[in-house]
Design a protein that fits this description.
The protein is α+β, with helices and mostly antiparallel strands. It has helices at about 5-15, 30-45, 90-105, 135-140, 145-150, 160-165, 195-200, 235-255, 290-305, 330-340, 355-360, 385-405; strands at about 50-55, 60-65, 75-80, 115-120, 180-190, 200-210, 210-220, 225, 260, 265-270, 275, 280-285, 315-320, 325, 345-350, 365-370. A hairpin with a 5-residue loop joins β1 and β2 (about 60-65). The chain is globular. It binds glyoxylic acid (GLV) and manganese (II) ion (2 copies).
Length: about 400
Amino acid sequence: MANKERLRQHLETMSKFTATPNEGMTRYSYSPEDVKTRTYIKEKMEQYGLTVSEDGLGNIFGKLEGTKESAPSVLIGSHFDSVPHGGNYDGPAGIMAGLEVAALFQEYGIKPAYPLEVIALIEEEGSRFGGGLMGSRGINGLITDEEFHTILDKDGISVIEAMQEAGLDSSLPKHRDPKTMKAFLELHIEQGPVLEEENITIGVVDAIVGLTQFEVTVEGKAGHAGTTPMGRRSDALITAATIVSELPKLAIDEGNGTVITTGQFAVFPNGSNVIPDKVVFSIDLRSGEDVSIQRVMEKVQALIESHQKDGIQTSIEQQLYIKPKELSEEIRSYLKESTEKLGISSIPMLSGAGHDAMVFSDYTEAGMIFIPSKDGLSHCPEEWSSLEHLAKGVDILFETAKKLTEAE
Ligand code: GLV
Ligand code: MN
Ligand code: MN
């Protein structure tokens, strides 16, 4: 059974590594906080008898060898980057769970036939480099080695440069042969209110919504706020604000659980008495149905183009597109069996958040469980889940990992 004291220690330690103490978790990939967290994760992996390695993106792996020769691994983990001013659980809860499963394998002296690998992924949120799911997309070969030189953060630093600054070895291999993976398991907080409201401990994820993200640029002409007549302006901000205000209707009209969000909005040159000449903003669009994403995506593009006029230029760059993903039926049934065996309540769920499991699901058997989130809150400092629920989630993963790693 999971050891809550070990879980509490992981939580307490990892929660300290934030760039914004007392104002939530801000842990960007390859930052000093990333380095402190990865050092802790690697120490714990070693303590639990795992062989530690990193890939050329800084993803971390802790492996317990199996008795079967050259057998593929059962991976368990999640990401350790965060959104700005986020919480302590989104991502790390899944790594703590992976570490605890490894600790239990060690405690019970389990010698698996298939290797068990705890995995800690970088840049799932995309808070530093945009797009998101970069660790899992990188591992699975969806981003080329050359692209890591041209994906830049807002200061113009590339992934490769950022890794080097953090003392990581970007020359190590980045891609992983799918033949080396037997399964990928991820525990995550629900980030919504359903489990808490229904008093259920575990959500077994059936499917994950599809999502796409865009960066939109609107360019106009700068000028003096006092001397330029209203009829002679090319104000980039007025156009950008109009576009953003028209986006929600596109999602509402589509229905089908489609949601659209602008969370980033940068105005240039950003002076109170200067007419803005440039605005850059984000669009995040999600739905459980790919046709809905496609339809709204076309409408978004048409809307943005329709605002192009004399003196106003618009452009749109797609940073991420991933279809809705159904998770492995086999793993779902193992997870469900484990909840029944342990007498833990569960319901099937659809995930409205994106997760690394959706990327792995194209390359290996992927499964996910959710634990309740207090007041349904996430991506904010108030994010909280109980150690009790985390421990129950670990017990389910432990049962499932034992089954998946034993000889057939
Ligand atoms: C990750 O939290 C996402 O769903 O964007
Ligand atoms: Mn998140
Ligand atoms: Mn997450």
